[in-house]
């Protein structure tokens, strides 16, 4: 039964007096909220990048053990993967995959 609510909003709302008044503090609150949403978005992008780097790091470790354990290789730190998100296996190992 949404008709009574719709009817009530239609009857009480007019261009001169909106049904939901917008005040300055509400606008400031929305602006603050949009900044928080932007910060959260940046945080999620960072988290997504960290997850990708961790996935590449672990995949390289697994692939090295599986495809080329005879090749000596010191795996780079996670910081290297964060700066350059790609596989860092030696070329000889990549060819065996």
Folded structure, characterized:
This protein has 97 residues and is an all-alpha fold. It is 68% helix and 0% strand. The longest helix has 44 residues, at 24-67.
Please give the structural blueprint.
Layout: H1 3-12, H2 24-67, H3 78-83, H4 91-96
By DSSP, the count of extended strands is 0
Identify the overall geometry.
rod-shaped
**Radius of gyration, in angstroms, nearest whole number:** 28 Å
* Total number of distinct structural domains: 1
Multimeric organization: single chain
Concise account of the structure shown:
With 97 residues, this protein is an all-alpha fold. It has four helices and no strands. The chain has helices at residues 3-12, 24-67, 78-83, 91-96.
Any descriptors?
single chain, 97 residues, mainly alpha, 4 helices
